[in-house]
């Protein structure tokens, strides 16, 4: 099929890296691997940072102009077979897909659409009405997490839902042989205020509790909150912390290949593609059982999940994997098999083929 792809939160072509941009690119890759001609149709980004700002009306005016532009192209060159919207939610509703699909009679598909009672205020409430409208219109809503599925089912009981577990391109990781160095912890995360900084602080606090096992930590990432992140780790022995800064995908894979454990609490992670990348390289994970993290880490099988906010439990989980080599090796093998076999681009392309096959 010829597919019009739109990501209202962040286009796959956006210059700033993030999990949303990566997932958008992965979805495009999976669609193309399945034989579809999927192309980004618009870079319109109706981002509603503050629900009280009253910005939605302005974005809706911008959307009308974009709808006219796209519609004119389709009238001239022919419409696609399907509209695919990635991650419409309260802060970034899809203002383009539903009206264009109605006008041209196209199937509408969403992936990672979400709706939350807690967000029903101001502009966000109006945006969620649009999200619900889109979910109701959609031929299928692809749910990446159980939390998103539950939210959509609550808001739109008759919505057509299907599961698409989070996935990554495993090629770079499958090509490397894991060579774990004892005691080598790795974390990969942007350094920005909010949940990321909170996770960094939680990790530093847990490491301060590790008296017995030997360890060292590789940190990959940079960002606006780098000074605050470095301050959180300042009380720890400087020789134990290696600051890599931002690395490209190949560089991340190389560092992971010599890591023994992936340590990242994961506060408010939608799911966290970095967890899948680490497991693909054979690193068991230590994370908190929060938000969408359990969607990508199998507790007791590919890693250990601890209660949210429990620093002592998190430190104990790291100590367990640092000292129990047999358990670490068993989880490492399970983690690599889990991602390479079940959460790969190829597996996602097959799932998408099953779901979209009847919509042509």
Please give a structural write-up.
By secondary structure, the chain is α/β, with parallel strands linked by helices. The protein has 2 domains: 2-167 and 344-359, 3-Layer(aba) Sandwich (Rossmann fold), CATH 3.40.50; 171-342, Rossmann fold. It is built from 13 helices and 12 strands. The chain has helices spanning 19-33, 56-77, 97-104, 122-137, 146-155, 171-174, 195-207, 226-233, 249-257, 273-280, 311-323, 325-342, 345-356, and strands spanning 2-6, 37-40, 82-86, 108-111, 140-143, 161-163, 184-188, 216-220, 241-245, 261-263, 285-288, 303-306. It has a 6-stranded parallel beta sheet with strand order 2-1-3-4-5-6, with helices on both faces. Helix 1 (19-33) packs across helix 13 (345-356). The radius of gyration is 21 Å and the shape is globular. The model has no long low-confidence stretch (mean pLDDT 95).
Keywords:
single chain, 360 residues, alpha/beta, Rossmann fold, 2 domains, six-stranded parallel sheet
Q: Residue share in helices? A: 40-55%
Quickly count the domains.
Answer: 2
The CATH superfamily of the largest domain appears as Glycogen Phosphorylase B
Q: Structural class of the secondary elements?
A: alpha/beta
- Give the strand tally: 12
Low-confidence stretches: none
Strand order, biggest sheet? Answer: 2-1-3-4-5-6
Order of helices and strands: EHEHEHEHEHEHEHEHEHEHEEHHH
> What is the overall number of helices?
13
Computed over alpha carbons, the radius of gyration is 21 Å
CATH topology of the largest domain, by name, is: Rossmann fold
Query: What gap, in angstroms, lies between the N and C termini?
Result: 7 Å
* Amount of beta strand: 5-15%
Q: Largest sheet, if any?
A: 6 strands, parallel
Q: Indicate the CATH architecture of the largest domain.
A: 3-Layer(aba) Sandwich
What gross morphology would you assign?
globular
